[in-house]
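Field guide to reading this record: the first block holds the primary sequence, the second block holds the structure written as discrete tokens, and the final block holds curator observations. Each block starts with its own label. This record concerns Acetylxylan esterase, catalogued under organism Micromonospora parva.

BLOCK 1 — SEQUENCE
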Amino acid sequence: MALSDLTVADCWAYRPDLTVPEDLHAFWERTLGAAPAAAATYEPVDTGLTQIRTFSVTVPGFGGEPVHGWLHLPATATGPLACVVEYLGYGRGRGLPHEKLFWASAGFAHLIMDTRGQGWSAAPGSTADAHRYPAGTVPGFLTRGVTSPEDFYYRRLITDAVRFAQAAQEHPAVDPDRVVVTGISQGGGLSLAVAALFPGVAAVMPDVPFLCDFPRAVRVATEGPYGEVAEYLALHRDQSGEVFRTLSYVDAAVLAPGATAPALFSVAMMDRICPPSTCFAAYHRYGGDKDVRVYEFNDHEGGEAHQQLEQLAWLHKLFGR
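BLOCK 2 — STRUCTURE
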């Protein structure tokens, strides 16, 4: 495996001049302005585990549509907890209730969001995306409604993600001043978008983030979902302008200057799915205090368990533990 993008030194120097839609803030204010249709619900789940309590979660997402998830709480915890809200990678659903136990084992509340319409790779999902799409959509999600910001799939998914962060803040077991958002790949891009759009976030931890610097990513990624856009435009040759305009509304690197919470990024320099230069584009434009862990010889798996320990130590320092 070799570099397929810029070197580390070139990534530190890479500062793209991204196009910001004039109505970006109005678009998201309008999208997020409607209050959720109902409160989140939490149903206890018997996993057979004795040290962690688990709940099946339903949160009203975009348009009030139900979005599922899991909430894990340490069984012996007392008092409001810091909460890690996790968004999932491309293709993943919420999976089984006992799969992701790291954060609850470390003493945090852990809220996991299912990904609407996804859940066919690695972990199943249970949240439908009821919206229809015109003919000509490339298999996958990056071209679903891609000619219109209003109809684009990721407008709905980012709204779901914001609603989960809000639900975490409102849960009685959670300290509302210590809500953290995180995720790998697609989940990393979602965490950046939420940090920019929801001021209640206390910290953000995006790992090898997807949804960043679309103009470059679509052109240089050699594997993964960015290729859906290139494949679409190879056929729809006259739609490049409107497609990249739509993508700019959900581009985490475009949204990043609006975030102010402390951030811990991770980037993998041999990443063929989320090119490291695009991750650094979001990092450089991020509006709050930030740090980054660079994994020079890793592909899209990034830091994996090593990065989890980095995150845990970083949160303990941030929250004074």
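BLOCK 3 — OBSERVATIONS
Residues 153-170 form the longest helix (18 residues).
Strands lie at 41-45, 52-60, 66-74, 81-87, 109-113, 174-184, 203-207, 263-268, 290-295.
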